[in-house]
Amino acid sequence: MKKLKNYIESSIGIRLTLYYCAILLTTLVLCGFVVIFGMNFALTKEANSKIKVAISNIQNSLQSEENPNLNDPELVDQAGSLELWIQIYKDNKLVSKSPNLGNIKLPFYNGPVKSILINGQEVLISGKDIGNGIFVEVAHPLKREKHFLAVLSGLLIFLMMGATLFAMTSGYISVTNTLRPLAILTKKVKEINTGKLDERIPLSGPKDELYLLAQAFNEMLERLEKGFKSQQEFVAAASHDLRTPLSVIKSYNDLLKRWGKDDKKILEESIQTIAVATQRMERLVNDLLFLARVESKPRINFVKVNTKELIEEIAKEAQALSQTITVTFSTCDLYVNADEDYLRRALWALVDNAIKYNKENGEVKILSREEGNFAVIDIIDTGIGIKEEALPRLFEKFYRVDSSRQSSGFGLGLSLSKEIIQLHGGDIKVKSKYKEGSTFSVYLPLYPPAIKGKNAIL
Ligand code: ADP
Prior knowledge:
CATH topology of the largest domain: Beta-Lactamase
Number of helices: 9
Strand order of the largest sheet: 2-1-5-4-3
Helix content: 40-55%
Radius of gyration: 50 Å
Order of helices and strands: HHHEEEEEHHHEHEEHEEHEE
Strand content: 15-25%
Largest sheet: 5 strands, antiparallel
Mean pLDDT: 88
Low-confidence stretches: 451-458
Bound molecules: adenosine-5'-diphosphate
């Protein structure tokens, strides 16, 4: 029993078939009951009227004569053909009865039609006093009707069983056929692992729910494949960037072991280089940790921030750090809903790049403006610019446009900025002309937060 239950629960096809067969059987049984009940009612009604007509016929023929002959066989003639039993009494004495009664004697009953049992069989009976001491009693045995109803019931039960069995078999076959793609899907899903993410489920047949499921699954695989690939690239790039300072430290360590203790120059150079390499590693690890924190979608401490104050602060700091580049700003009071520390870090990465990738004596401008429901901060530089083909990959982690001209960056600044701004419901757009300069535009929803749907310009 438990095995059967498990089998039923393990297959949608069997469950669906059983469910629909149960509905079909219930409907058929209800219809059967209605048919049997209706037929029984109609047959009883017909018998009823036959009895009444017979009584009134006898009454008419007796009343039409002055001295009626109660033994006249014509009186009870109708009995045989209509399956009626007739008894006629005169002054309470039985004087005539239909021959089909044989040995049966009807019990004395004066009243409308009612059902009684005679010798174990159901009979409808009615009796009437028709005057002059004459009493007529007519009965109808329901044997034929009962037999008809029994045959009809048997036939209906047979048909119900047949129909249910047919529905069960054909239903199971068609449901199993319909659900076959699910089995293929399950098999494929079991086969797919991280080494086989390029596998796809073949799409065929009508565009029904299963087709859409397989399509959605393929799309998910595509996203997973992309994510997995970029994860692999990320790990490779991170290890590569960590390996360089590590090998510097290792080689200076070897140098120190061999000669460093006695050679003061080597000792000093080693200490200096190891300190720079350690600093670089520390910076990379910090960036990675921060990126991991931002990517895990932290709870942001949103407050009302005036972009004007923040921009002025960043611009002054940037000017102080860079002697050769001129940093200017033009801002207005624009409020955004943001975590100030995160926002400062995102903007600072863009301003830092604008200085880093600028030309000698170049310029950096920071402007703020309002566009729809957004506060826009433009960071414009007159620097080396970015080639058009590099723009689509610019915000990828560890991406550096041209490694030959690289400074100390790891290619994480822009991806970090973008993650932070997107966490605030905004985005960063870039326009650049190679060798002429770049403009990074930061879009942030204005404070108070706009009604959903209004931020659609991005
Ligand atoms: P990095 O730490 O290398 O600066 P980023 O993610 O900040 O990393 O920048 C990625 C790359 O985009 C940089 O290596 C640089 O080539 C290019 N880049 C970013 N900002 C600018 C800019 N203002 N002008 C020119 N190139 C830029």
